[in-house]
Amino acid sequence: GVPAGAWHLWQRWGRLDWADIVAPGRQASLGTAFPATHARLLPTVASAFAVGDGVAVYRRPDGSFLQAGDQLVHGDHYRAYELLADDPEAFYYGDYARAMVSAVADGGAMSMADLEAYRVIESQPRSVSFHGFTVHARGDDLDDVLGTMARAAMTVNADPLTHPDAALALVAALRSTQRRAETTNLVAVDEQGNGCVITTSLGLGSGVWVPGYGVHLNSMLGEGELIREHRHPGVRMGSMMSPLLGLDDHDELILLAGAAGGSRIRQSLVQTVLRILTGSTPQEAIDAPRLAALPSLVRLEPGFSDEVIARLQQAGNEVLVAGSRDAYFGGVSAIGTLGGGADPRRSGVVIML
C-alpha cells in the first residue's frame, strides 16, 4: 500500500513536485552507508534478508555480511523509484504487478485482481485525554496504544527508573507478547505547522524479492500476532503500527510521534510520550532507559535503580538488564514544542531544513 498511500497523501496535501519527493529515495537505492545498528542486527535476520536477491544486497563479495559503513546498494530498486515517479498507480497493474504476482506464485495466492482492487482508506482515529492534552492515534491499532497510555498514566507522578511502585505499574500496563519486526518511522512538521507521521513495515521480511525491481516483500501473513481472528477474503489485516499526534486544549499541534519495533511499538511509544507530555524534550524522552514487559520476564535497559530491580524480582518477574541501550527496545521518533528527537537505538536522525 505504500505507493498508493504516498500518492494519496501528496494529492491531498503535497506542495513539492512529486518527482522531487521521489528523487532522494532513488538516489539512496544506488548506494548509501550501511548504519552500525543495522550491521549489528543483520546476522539475526539474515535468513529473511540475505537470501535470494538479498545475497547481493546484504553480503560482501566474499560472502560475509555487510559491515557498518559499507555501501548498501539495492540492485534494481532504482527501477521501482523510476516507476513511482512516473506513475504510482502502475504498481497495481502492468509489468510490476505481474512480476510481483509471479514472485509469490510458489506457495502464494495473490492475483492481479487483488492488486487492482487495492484502495487507500482514511479511517477515524481514537482519542484519549491526558493532563490537559488530547492524543489521537489509529482507531484500529491492534495493540491499543491509547488504552495502554490511560492505564500507565498512574506512573507519571513518579519516575519508573527510581520508584519501584511506578515501575510495577508500568510493567502491568505494558505487559504483552513480544516479537521482532523490521519497521521504519518518520515524523515531519513544516513551517506552516502541518504534521505527518508515517510508519511502514516489512514485518521480519519474507525473503521474496520482486525480480527486476529490487523490492523485498513483507512477511505480514507470517506474523502470528497479526492473525488474531478468522480473516475473510478482502478484509484488511490489522497492524500494531501506531503513529499518533497530540493537541493542547486550544487544538494546537504539540506532539507527533511514532515508533518501530513490532509489539514493542506500544511499549516504546507509551514510555516516550508520557515523558514528553510531562515536560521532557523529545530527545530526552527517547534517550531515557526503557523496559519491555513480557509475560513473565521484564527486560531493562541500564539506568533502573537497584531498588526497582529488586522490587520487580520480588513481584515474581525474571529480570534481565541489557548491557547497553538496544534496538530491541524499539525505535521512536518524535517532534514536540521543545524540538525533535530520534532514537539512537536504531540510527535515528533529526534534520532541520
List keywords for this structure.
3-stranded mixed β-sheet; 12 helices; Glutamine Phosphoribosylpyrophosphate, subunit 1, domain 1; 2 domains; 353 residues; alpha+beta; 33% helix; 6-stranded antiparallel β-sheet
Would you write up a description of this structure?
This protein has 353 residues and is α+β, with helices and mostly antiparallel strands. It folds into two domains: 2-122, no CATH class; 126-197 and 237-346, Gamma-glutamyltranspeptidase, small (S) subunit (Glutamine Phosphoribosylpyrophosphate, subunit 1, domain 1), CATH 3.60.20.40. The chain is built from twelve helices and 15 strands. It has a six-stranded antiparallel β-sheet with strand order 3-4-9-10-14-15. Strands 11-12-13 form a three-stranded mixed β-sheet. A two-stranded antiparallel sheet has the order 1-2. Helix 8 (145-152) packs antiparallel against helix 9 (164-174). It is globular and about 60 Å long.
